[in-house]
Amino acid sequence: MFETPWIAALAALFLWWFATGILLWRVHRADKGGPDEHNWSVLISLPLLAAGALGVNATLADPSPQGVWLAFLSALALWGWVELAFLSGVVTGPNQSPCPGHLRGTARFWSAFRTVAWHELLLASILAVLIAASIGAENAFALWTFLVLFVARISAKLNLFLGVPRINTDFLPKPLAHLSSYFRQGPVSGFFPLSVTLIALAVGCFLERLWRAHQALDQGAIIGFTLLSMLSALALLEHWFMVWRVRDDKLWRWMIPAPAQKQPKT
């Protein structure tokens, strides 16, 4: 099973869908709880962060398919904990206020950045540690997995800030409700075609590395580049959800009920 590329591709697709659903379920469940419910979510999930760190360390010298799988899952564990801390409003930024209507240009950008500053700095710090730990390592797939997630998330946030036609705010938890005021719904900016082109090039690059791994019969690299190809392709799909007439929220309605429709006034 560990050495089957098709299983790796399907597993990456399932993990993207299921892990996103679990995160959304947890933060919206906490929304309905007491004032400390979000804090408890982050504290109780700390073993996930520890498991991710230990898993990365254990796989650096293991380029086997099993080692690559564990590296991929460990990077997802690190990423998942940070995302839970962000969605819970625990690790966000010093600015927790809606965007003032008069802000434009650079002032609006820095105000928006201050809403997510601690989150971005934490992600960048983890990425820096992974880079340092992966220098000369036989298995750097944890680093590459985290890097794909990091770049895709930065790109998505910039596109939401600069402008895209389709923005779904239904899933924003209460601690992050103010973020929607920094989104710009409208025609795409010049950054959108650049971002999707770069992500598409990343997909192509990983597929080319996958082909080379097949030629070399390197089973660990085959699994690793299959996972990275699928992960970057999903990141590309998430970007296109911002412009397509597709309700991507339906993918996770199994976890989060649809918002109640307002009754018309009589």
How would you describe what is shown here?
By secondary structure, the chain is mainly alpha-helical. Helices cover 65% and strands 0% of the residues. The protein has one domain (5-252). It has helices spanning 5-31, 37-44, 46-59, 65-87, 105-134, 141-162, 191-216, 219-240. The model is unreliable at 260-266 (pLDDT under 50).
Q: Count of helices?
A: 8
- The share of residues in extended strands comes to under 5%
Structural class: mainly alpha
Number of strands: 0
The largest sheet is: none
Mean pLDDT: 90
> Spans with pLDDT under 50 lasting ≥5 residues?
260-266
Number of domains: 1
How far from one another are the termini?
60 Å
> What is the 3D shape?
globular
CA gyration radius, whole angstroms: 19 Å
Helix and strand pattern: HHHHHHHH
Residues in helices, as a percent range: 55-70%
Task: Describe the structure using short key phrases.
single chain; 65% helix; 8 helices; 266 residues
Please specify the SSE layout and strand pairing:
Layout: H1 5-31, H2 37-44, H3 46-59, H4 65-87, H5 105-134, H6 141-162, H7 191-216, H8 219-240
Helix pairs in contact: 1-4, 1-8, 3-4, 4-5, 4-6, 4-8, 5-6, 6-7, 6-8, 7-8
